[in-house]
From TrEMBL:
Pfam families in UniProt: VTT_dom
Protein name in UniProt: DedA family protein
Species annotation: Streptomyces mirabilis
Protein location: Cell membrane
Iron in keyword set: no
Main location: membrane
UniProt KW Membrane keyword: yes
Record-annotated membrane-spanning stretches: 20-41, 48-71, 77-101, 164-184, 196-214
Amino acid sequence: MAAPLFAASQLGSQLGSELAVNILSAQSLLAAFGVLGVGVVMFAETGLLIGFFLPGDSLLFTAGLLCTGAGHGGLKLSLGPLLVCAAVGALAGSQCGYLIGRKAGGALLARSGSPRLHEGAKRAEELLERYGHAKAIVLARFVPVVRTVLNPMAGALQVPARTFTVWQVVGGLVWSIGLTLAGYALGSSIPNVDRYLLPIIAVIVIVSLIPLAAEFRRSRKAAATTAEKGAEG
Protein backbone atom coordinates (compact mmCIF):
# COMPACT_ATOMS: atom_id res chain seq x y z
CA MET A 1 0.00 0.00 0.00
CA ALA A 2 2.89 2.36 0.79
CA ALA A 3 4.47 1.90 -2.67
CA PRO A 4 1.39 3.03 -4.64
CA LEU A 5 0.94 5.99 -2.30
CA PHE A 6 4.59 6.94 -2.76
CA ALA A 7 4.27 6.67 -6.56
CA ALA A 8 1.12 8.77 -6.51
CA SER A 9 2.89 11.37 -4.40
CA GLN A 10 5.80 11.51 -6.86
CA LEU A 11 3.40 11.84 -9.81
CA GLY A 12 1.53 14.63 -8.06
CA SER A 13 4.77 16.44 -7.34
CA GLN A 14 5.87 16.13 -10.97
CA LEU A 15 2.53 17.41 -12.27
CA GLY A 16 2.65 20.26 -9.81
CA SER A 17 6.08 21.32 -11.01
CA GLU A 18 4.93 21.22 -14.66
CA LEU A 19 1.87 23.29 -13.86
CA ALA A 20 4.12 25.82 -12.13
CA VAL A 21 5.90 26.65 -15.41
CA ASN A 22 6.48 30.36 -15.93
CA ILE A 23 5.00 30.93 -19.40
CA LEU A 24 6.73 34.29 -19.64
CA SER A 25 10.17 32.68 -19.24
CA ALA A 26 11.74 31.10 -22.31
CA GLN A 27 14.02 28.89 -20.22
CA SER A 28 11.15 27.68 -18.03
CA LEU A 29 9.04 26.78 -21.08
CA LEU A 30 11.90 24.93 -22.75
CA ALA A 31 12.81 23.00 -19.61
CA ALA A 32 9.20 21.85 -19.21
CA PHE A 33 8.12 21.14 -22.79
CA GLY A 34 11.20 21.02 -25.04
CA VAL A 35 10.95 21.50 -28.81
CA LEU A 36 7.23 20.66 -28.93
CA GLY A 37 6.62 23.55 -26.57
CA VAL A 38 8.33 25.85 -29.06
CA GLY A 39 5.89 24.81 -31.78
CA VAL A 40 2.90 25.32 -29.50
CA VAL A 41 4.07 28.77 -28.36
CA MET A 42 4.79 29.84 -31.95
CA PHE A 43 1.29 28.78 -32.96
CA ALA A 44 -0.36 30.52 -30.00
CA GLU A 45 1.61 33.75 -30.36
CA THR A 46 1.02 34.13 -34.09
CA GLY A 47 -2.43 32.58 -34.39
CA LEU A 48 -4.40 33.32 -31.24
CA LEU A 49 -5.01 36.80 -29.82
CA ILE A 50 -4.61 35.43 -26.29
CA GLY A 51 -0.98 34.58 -27.12
CA PHE A 52 0.19 38.16 -27.67
CA PHE A 53 2.17 38.19 -24.39
CA LEU A 54 4.22 35.04 -25.10
CA PRO A 55 8.05 35.38 -25.42
CA GLY A 56 8.46 34.49 -29.11
CA ASP A 57 11.80 36.16 -29.92
CA SER A 58 13.54 35.14 -26.71
CA LEU A 59 12.12 31.61 -26.92
CA LEU A 60 13.51 31.02 -30.42
CA PHE A 61 16.92 32.45 -29.59
CA THR A 62 17.19 30.61 -26.27
CA ALA A 63 16.08 27.34 -27.86
CA GLY A 64 18.80 27.68 -30.52
CA LEU A 65 21.37 28.40 -27.84
CA LEU A 66 20.31 25.32 -25.86
CA CYS A 67 21.00 23.13 -28.90
CA THR A 68 24.68 23.70 -28.14
CA GLY A 69 24.34 22.57 -24.52
CA ALA A 70 25.27 26.04 -23.28
CA GLY A 71 22.33 26.41 -20.89
CA HIS A 72 22.20 25.79 -17.16
CA GLY A 73 21.00 22.42 -15.86
CA GLY A 74 22.40 20.37 -18.74
CA LEU A 75 19.33 20.93 -20.94
CA LYS A 76 20.16 20.30 -24.60
CA LEU A 77 17.73 20.38 -27.52
CA SER A 78 18.06 18.84 -31.00
CA LEU A 79 18.48 21.47 -33.71
CA GLY A 80 16.69 19.63 -36.55
CA PRO A 81 13.41 18.92 -34.70
CA LEU A 82 13.57 22.40 -33.16
CA LEU A 83 13.75 24.11 -36.56
CA VAL A 84 10.83 22.04 -37.84
CA CYS A 85 8.65 22.72 -34.79
CA ALA A 86 9.45 26.44 -34.79
CA ALA A 87 8.72 26.88 -38.49
CA VAL A 88 5.56 24.75 -38.52
CA GLY A 89 4.17 26.46 -35.43
CA ALA A 90 4.89 29.96 -36.78
CA LEU A 91 3.43 29.29 -40.24
CA ALA A 92 0.37 27.33 -39.08
CA GLY A 93 -0.39 29.89 -36.39
CA SER A 94 -0.22 32.82 -38.79
CA GLN A 95 -2.50 31.11 -41.30
CA CYS A 96 -4.94 30.21 -38.53
CA GLY A 97 -5.03 33.82 -37.33
CA TYR A 98 -5.75 35.00 -40.88
CA LEU A 99 -8.65 32.55 -41.27
CA ILE A 100 -10.08 33.60 -37.91
CA GLY A 101 -9.93 37.22 -39.04
CA ARG A 102 -11.73 36.46 -42.30
CA LYS A 103 -14.54 34.64 -40.51
CA ALA A 104 -14.90 36.70 -37.33
CA GLY A 105 -13.78 40.10 -38.62
CA GLY A 106 -12.89 42.46 -35.78
CA ALA A 107 -15.40 40.94 -33.35
CA LEU A 108 -12.80 39.03 -31.33
CA LEU A 109 -10.54 42.05 -31.01
CA ALA A 110 -13.47 44.27 -30.03
CA ARG A 111 -14.25 41.96 -27.12
CA SER A 112 -10.75 42.24 -25.70
CA GLY A 113 -10.16 44.80 -22.97
CA SER A 114 -6.35 44.80 -23.31
CA PRO A 115 -4.97 48.26 -24.21
CA ARG A 116 -1.73 46.65 -25.37
CA LEU A 117 -3.61 44.39 -27.78
CA HIS A 118 -5.63 47.29 -29.20
CA GLU A 119 -2.46 49.34 -29.65
CA GLY A 120 -0.91 46.42 -31.50
CA ALA A 121 -3.98 46.21 -33.76
CA LYS A 122 -3.69 49.91 -34.56
CA ARG A 123 -0.02 49.53 -35.46
CA ALA A 124 -0.80 46.46 -37.57
CA GLU A 125 -3.44 48.35 -39.56
CA GLU A 126 -1.04 51.26 -40.04
CA LEU A 127 1.63 48.85 -41.32
CA LEU A 128 -0.77 47.38 -43.89
CA GLU A 129 -1.87 50.81 -45.08
CA ARG A 130 1.58 52.42 -45.17
CA TYR A 131 3.80 49.68 -46.58
CA GLY A 132 1.45 47.50 -48.56
CA HIS A 133 0.52 43.90 -47.88
CA ALA A 134 3.76 42.07 -48.69
CA LYS A 135 6.18 44.33 -46.80
CA ALA A 136 3.86 44.75 -43.81
CA ILE A 137 3.31 41.01 -43.39
CA VAL A 138 7.08 40.34 -43.39
CA LEU A 139 7.97 43.28 -41.12
CA ALA A 140 5.26 42.40 -38.60
CA ARG A 141 6.99 39.11 -37.79
CA PHE A 142 9.73 41.04 -36.02
CA VAL A 143 7.50 43.26 -33.88
CA PRO A 144 6.06 41.77 -30.65
CA VAL A 145 2.24 41.98 -30.34
CA VAL A 146 1.97 43.28 -33.92
CA ARG A 147 2.89 39.82 -35.24
CA THR A 148 -0.05 38.46 -33.25
CA VAL A 149 -2.73 40.90 -34.35
CA LEU A 150 -1.67 41.55 -37.95
CA ASN A 151 -2.78 38.10 -39.08
CA PRO A 152 -6.45 38.42 -38.06
CA MET A 153 -6.37 42.08 -39.15
CA ALA A 154 -5.20 40.98 -42.61
CA GLY A 155 -8.10 38.52 -42.74
CA ALA A 156 -10.62 41.09 -41.55
CA LEU A 157 -9.36 43.65 -44.12
CA GLN A 158 -9.72 41.05 -46.90
CA VAL A 159 -6.05 40.85 -47.85
CA PRO A 160 -5.98 38.28 -50.72
CA ALA A 161 -5.35 34.79 -49.34
CA ARG A 162 -2.60 34.04 -51.88
CA THR A 163 -0.73 37.26 -51.10
CA PHE A 164 -1.01 36.71 -47.36
CA THR A 165 0.09 33.07 -47.53
CA VAL A 166 3.14 33.70 -49.70
CA TRP A 167 4.47 36.55 -47.58
CA GLN A 168 3.64 35.11 -44.20
CA VAL A 169 5.61 32.00 -45.21
CA VAL A 170 8.58 34.15 -46.26
CA GLY A 171 8.48 36.25 -43.09
CA GLY A 172 7.72 33.28 -40.85
CA LEU A 173 10.68 31.23 -42.09
CA VAL A 174 13.12 34.14 -41.88
CA TRP A 175 11.94 34.99 -38.36
CA SER A 176 11.65 31.52 -36.81
CA ILE A 177 14.65 29.83 -38.45
CA GLY A 178 16.80 32.97 -38.44
CA LEU A 179 16.47 33.66 -34.71
CA THR A 180 16.91 29.98 -33.84
CA LEU A 181 20.09 29.70 -35.92
CA ALA A 182 21.36 32.98 -34.47
CA GLY A 183 21.10 31.49 -30.98
CA TYR A 184 22.76 28.29 -32.13
CA ALA A 185 25.64 30.15 -33.82
CA LEU A 186 26.27 32.33 -30.79
CA GLY A 187 26.10 29.40 -28.38
CA SER A 188 28.58 27.48 -30.55
CA SER A 189 31.10 30.29 -30.78
CA ILE A 190 31.06 31.97 -27.34
CA PRO A 191 31.80 29.98 -24.13
CA ASN A 192 29.30 30.47 -21.28
CA VAL A 193 27.13 32.70 -23.48
CA ASP A 194 24.08 31.89 -21.32
CA ARG A 195 25.47 34.27 -18.68
CA TYR A 196 24.74 37.14 -21.04
CA LEU A 197 21.35 35.86 -22.22
CA LEU A 198 19.18 38.75 -20.99
CA PRO A 199 21.33 41.52 -22.53
CA ILE A 200 21.55 39.54 -25.78
CA ILE A 201 17.77 39.14 -25.94
CA ALA A 202 17.35 42.87 -25.33
CA VAL A 203 19.69 43.56 -28.25
CA ILE A 204 17.73 41.14 -30.45
CA VAL A 205 14.47 42.94 -29.71
CA ILE A 206 16.09 46.30 -30.54
CA VAL A 207 17.66 44.98 -33.74
CA SER A 208 14.36 43.41 -34.79
CA LEU A 209 12.79 46.88 -34.72
CA ILE A 210 15.42 48.39 -37.02
CA PRO A 211 13.71 47.37 -40.32
CA LEU A 212 10.44 48.85 -39.11
CA ALA A 213 12.16 52.06 -37.97
CA ALA A 214 14.01 52.33 -41.29
CA GLU A 215 10.80 51.88 -43.24
CA PHE A 216 9.02 54.45 -41.07
CA ARG A 217 11.82 56.98 -41.59
CA ARG A 218 11.86 56.40 -45.33
CA SER A 219 8.07 56.74 -45.47
CA ARG A 220 8.14 60.06 -43.57
CA LYS A 221 10.93 61.36 -45.80
CA ALA A 222 8.96 60.43 -48.92
CA ALA A 223 5.83 62.09 -47.51
CA ALA A 224 7.79 65.24 -46.68
CA THR A 225 9.26 65.34 -50.20
CA THR A 226 5.80 64.94 -51.73
CA ALA A 227 4.45 67.73 -49.51
CA GLU A 228 7.30 70.05 -50.56
CA LYS A 229 6.68 69.38 -54.24
CA GLY A 230 2.97 70.03 -53.68
CA ALA A 231 3.72 73.33 -51.98
CA GLU A 232 6.04 74.40 -54.80
CA GLY A 233 3.44 73.49 -57.39
